[in-house]
TrEMBL record:
GO molecular function: identical protein binding
Record key words, sorted: Membrane, Transmembrane, Transmembrane helix
Stored InterPro entries: ECPIP
Any one GO biological process: mitocytosis
Protein name: Exosomal polycystin 1 interacting protein
Coiled-coil residues: none
Gene designation: EPCIP
Transmembrane segments: 12-31
Length: 226
C-alpha cells in the first residue's frame, strides 16, 4: 500500500532550501549579536554604562555586570550625549532618566522600569526618536509595548534626498514622553503632529517651549507619548 521512501527530487529540494534558510538565519543572528549595545542602568544611586554583546534580561543587574563591559559613571562628570545607535536604560526613578535623556538625541530607545514606586507625571524631551520600546518590571497587563514614529512625507528614500538636497526643509523629530506611562495604568499611546514649522506657535501652552528656536527653517514632527 505504501511505497518505500525513495530519494526523489521532491524530498531532496525542500531540505536543501531548509538548510539554506537556516544557514542564512544563523549567519544573520551571528552578525547581529556581534553588535555592541549600550545599556545604562542605575542601582542605589550608582550609574553603570555598559557595552553588551548579548541581550540581557531586563533589570538583571548582576548578569549585566557579568556579561557586559561596564563602567561606573559619576553623576557629577556626566555629560548629555547623543546616541547614534540603540540605547537601553534600566531605571528606578525619573531623576536619573532626566539626567540621561532629557533633551538628548536617541533614535532607537528601550526603557525598562525596574522600580516599584509609582512615577509622577513629568515630561522628557527626546530629539530624533523613531523607535521606542517600553517595559515594566511589574508583570501587569502590558508587558512590552512599542511605538514607531514616522512621517507621511518621509520614507527612507526621502531621508536620503533630504540629506543630499540642501534646498529641502530639514525634518526634525521631537518627542515628549510622559513618565507616568511606566505605571502601566493603560496602554501606551502616541500622537504625532506633522509639518510643524514652529513649536512655540503650534503649542503655545507647552511648558518651556522657549527652548525651541523659532527662527530656523525646519519642519518638526512632534510626538506625544503617554
Ligand atoms: C556611555 O558609553 C558610551 C560609549 O560606550 C558613550 O558614548 C556615552 O556617552 C556614555 N554615556 C554616559 C551617560 O556616560
Ligand atoms: C526635562 O527638562 C524640562 C525643562 O528643563 C523640565 O521641565 C522637565 O521636568 C524635565 N523632565 C524630567 C523628567 O525631569
Ligand atoms: C506634510 O507635508 C507633506 C509634504 O509637504 C505632505 O505630503 C503631507 O501630507 C503633510 N502631512 C500632514 C499631516 O499635513
Ligand atoms: C529655507 O528652506 C527653503 C527651501 O527649503 C530655502 O529656499 C531657503 O533658503 C531656506 N531659508 C533659510 C533661511 O535657510
Amino acid at each position: 500500500l505504501f511505497p518505500p521512501p525513495s530519494f526523489s527530487t521532491f524530498s531532496f529540494w525542500p531540505s536543501l532550501f531548509l538548510a539554506g534558510f537556516l544557514g542564512l538565519h544563523i549567519a544573520d543572528s551571528f552578525v547581529r549579536s556581534q553588535k555592541n549595545h549600550t545599556l545604562i542602568f542605575t542601582k542605589e544611586s550608582i550609574i553603570r554604562n555598559c557595552s553588551c554583546l548579548a541581550d540581557i534580561h531586563d533589570c538583571d543587574y548582576n548578569l549585566a555586570n557579568l556579561m557586559c563591559n561596564c563602567r561606573t559613571v559619576l553623576p557629577s562628570t556626566m555629560e548629555k550625549t547623543n546616541y547614534n545607535s540603540d540605547l537601553t536604560i534600566w531605571f528606578t526613578d525619573t531623576s536619573v532618566l532626566e539626567m540621561l535623556l532629557n533633551f538628548t538625541r536617541v533614535c532607537d530607545l528601550k526603557l525598562s522600569f525596574c522600580g516599584t514606586a509609582p512615577l509622577p507625571t513629568e515630561y522628557l524631551t527626546i530629539w530624533g526618536l523613531r523607535k521606542l520600546r517600553v517595559k515594566n518590571k511589574v508583570k501587569g497587563q502590558f508587558p512590552e509595548q512599542s511605538v514607531t514614529i514616522s512621517s507621511s512625507s518621509n520614507n527612507e528614500k526621502e531621508d536620503y534626498l533630504a540629506m543630499h538636497n540642501k534646498d529641502r526643509q530639514m525634518l526634525v523629530y521631537i518627542s515628549f514622553l510622559d513618565t507616568s506611562l511606566f505605571n502601566g495604568y493603560s496602554l501606551l499611546k502616541s500622537y504625532s503632529v506633522e509639518n510643524v514649522s514652529s513649536i512655540t506657535e503650534y503649542f503655545p501652552s507647552l511648558l518651556y517651549s522657549d527652548v525651541f528656536s523659532t527662527s530656523d527653517n525646519k519642519s518638526y514632527v512632534v510626538t506625544f507619548i503617554y
